[in-house]
Amino acid sequence: MSTSHASLNELWQKQSLSWEYGAAASPDIEDVPIRVFPAALHESGVTEIIKLDLSDLIGTSTPATTPSLLANYLTIQAEDHIQIAEQTSSEVYFVMRGQGRTETEQGILEWKQGDAFTLPCHQGVTHFADVDSALYWVHDGPLMSYLGVHPNKPRFESAYYSKEYLDGEISKIREAGIRENRNRNGIILGNPASEKTKTMTHTMWSLYNVLPKQSVQKPHRHNSVAIDLAVSADPNTYTMIAKEIDEAGNLIDPFRAEWKPNSVFVTPPGWWHSHHNESDVDAYVFPVQDAGLQTYLRTLDIQFIKD
Ligand SMILES: [Fe+2]
C-alpha cells in the first residue's frame, strides 16, 4: 500500500463511528411541535418575507417549519415588488389577499385572492402587487438543504389554479360529500407530472378542503407534516390535535387550533387530528404537506377512525 493510500485510510478512519443498536435505534431527535402563526404577522404594512421558522425547535441548520418544508408569509404593499430566490424543487403559493403578478422566466402570471400556483426548480421570480397583497408560500428548500443539492432540473411544469377553478371543482363534490357523510370534502390539487402520487408536486401535497357548517371531520393521522392555512372560517371552527387516541377513537388531551382566516397552524407527523365547524358558515382550509415525498417513499400511512 502506498503512503498516500495509508494516509487516506487513516484520515477516513477518523470519521468512522458506531453505536450500540439498542442505544441508537430510536435516536432522541427533536419533535415537530404544534405551532400557530397568526395573521397579524403579515399585517404589519411593509413588503417582506416572514419565515414561519421553527429551526431552533426542530434542530435544522437552515430556516424550516418542518424538516422538509419552509412556510412563509409574503407581504407586498401596493405598487411594490419583492424578488425571491431560494434553492427549491417545489413551491406552492396561495394568494391570501390582494392581486398582482409574478414575473418568471416563462412570462408573467397574474393572480388574485383565492388563486394558487406552483413553481418547480426555482431560479428566482419577482412578485409585483397592484394593491396590498399577502401570499402564503411553502417550499421544500429545507429538504434541498438537508440533501446538500441545488436542483437543476424541473420535475414538473408550473400550474395555476384560479379561485374560480377551485370553487367550481369543490362545488361539484360538496353536496355528495355531505350526503354520504364523507370524512373529507375536498379536492387534492394535481399536476400531470404527479399522476402516480396524486399530489400537487412530486414532493408537496395540497388539498382545497371545505368543512361544511355544523360538521365534524373525524380524526385521522398521516406521517406527513401538515402546515394548514385557514382560508375562511367563522369563529368556533377549529382542529383538535393529539398524539394519541383512546380505544373509542377519541383524542387524548388534544390541542385546539382555531381556524382564524389567513393564519397557519402546524400538525406534527403522525398526530391524530379532527376538524370541527360549529358555526353556520362553510369554512375552507388549504393544508400543505410533504406528502408527495411520503407517498413516493410509501411511508405516508394515512389512517382514519373507523365509523
Ligand atoms: Fe390531515
From TrEMBL:
InterPro entries: GDO-like, RmlC-like_jellyroll, RmlC_Cupin_sf. PANTHER family: 1,2-DIOXYGENASE PROTEIN-RELATED, CUPIN. This is Gentisate 1,2-dioxygenase. CDD domains: cupin_GDO-like_N. GO terms for molecular function: dioxygenase activity. Signal peptide: none annotated. It comes from the Bacteria.
